């Protein structure tokens, strides 16, 4: 239960708090490990020094000569002085071969350690290796037993030298307290420094947070400031966020433009459909109210109704065709086309006859794309769809140029592509108007001299979509006062048999 609780408590902290906490925990673990290692090494060193001192004292005491033969009472005093100088502040005991205490020249001040049985064999088995013993008061001692070898001593005796470990323990405890104080100060200092360091390091993330909040509020133009180096995690994150924001802004702008075009499209479509419908409704109401007493009036009204109905049918068919083209494009599919080898000269010749029949007052010429004689333009196309393209171009030239305006039809190849173009000498278009000339319901009434019989503004949109379905493109060259040239460019199909003009 403690680990999940710690995880939940850590999860409630901020990122800065979590980073500082994790760093401090790592520092605490490192300090504990290093302190434990240092204390262990120091304790071993102190114990080793105590063992060396005990071993030296034991060896020196074992080699002392027997001073008991010195006359008078000076012998014991001399012996005690010598032993005191050689052994220092240690507990010393002489044992006989059976392990019984013979003499204790240096008794312990706080209580002698409780020794195991140390006869001659046990002492030799220990081989002067230090061991620990405990006094009655719980004090720990380090003990070394050395066999006696000086002359005049009873055979098989030994000497035991012991040193208290209290000084070692006191030193270790004092060191531990000092380490605890120093580590606490270090942790407090590192915590303060880490808090401000992490705060400075997370400043780019706070800027990203501020930018994200502004973007969530609707300001899609905001961007994350790039750091000095893009090779860091923050640099790559900033680049990724800015790229994502660019795509979001582009998508939002595209959706806004699509919605605007849709609103314009619906408004224009409603307006275009309403015009013929109002005409039909007006004539039917006039007939119902008895405003057509003569047969000739009825025939004229029916003729107008038929014309408006035909216009309505054309608009609806154009809208259905554009909707179908849009559906195919949205599904990334191609418009079903009946592709056959053909030559654009056939369509150019038919367009020439149509222009002469529909506008006999115009001068019409059939040339190459840039003048000169017309040439072959073999393509692989759907003849009925491409004929619809040329029909719309012819109707656009007649409807949007003044009567009697000369028209030129050019056909041939240019730059390895098949070209069919229709050029007029009308008022022309500005650059802005030319950029929107293929938009739906777009009409330049004043600049193009739109006549009363002008269409709904869908013809060139259909032209553009049908040519795109053939993997071609539509081009327009125009300038105010210099006419306009609409050019259909399609891929060549070399295997197409050429037709005679």
Short description, anyone?
With 501 residues, the chain is α+β, with helices and mostly antiparallel strands.
By DSSP, the count of extended strands is 12
Number of H/I helices: 12
Number of domains: 3
Helix content: 40-55%
CATH topology of the largest domain: Beta-Lactamase
Query: What's the CATH first level of the largest domain?
Result: Alpha Beta
Task: Specify the overall morphology.
Answer: rod-shaped
Please tell me how large the radius of gyration is.
55 Å
- Contiguous low-pLDDT stretches (5 residues minimum) are 150-154, 446-454, 497-501
Order of helices and strands: HHHEEHEEEHHHHEHEEHEEHHEE
Characterise this structure.
The longest helix has 56 residues, at 233-288. The chain has three domains: 15-172, Beta-Lactamase (2-Layer Sandwich); 235-330, Signal transduction histidine kinase, dimerisation/phosphotransfer (DHp) domain (Helix Hairpins, Orthogonal Bundle); 340-491, 2-Layer Sandwich (Heat Shock Protein 90), CATH 3.30.565. The protein has twelve helices and twelve strands. With 501 residues, it is of the alpha+beta class. The two termini are 94 Å apart. A hairpin with a 2-residue loop joins strand 9 (407-414) and strand 10 (417-424). The protein has helices at residues 2-11, 15-62, 74-87, 120-126, 166-201, 203-216, 233-288, 295-330, 344-358, 383-399, 431-435, 459-469; strands spanning 91-95, 101-106, 131-134, 140-147, 158-164, 340-343, 364-367, 378-381, 407-414, 417-424, 473-478, 484-491. The chain is rod-shaped, with a radius of gyration of 55 Å. 54% of the residues lie in helices and 14% in strands. The strands form three sheets. Strands 2-1-5-4-3 form a five-stranded antiparallel beta sheet. A five-stranded mixed beta sheet has the order 7-9-10-12-11.
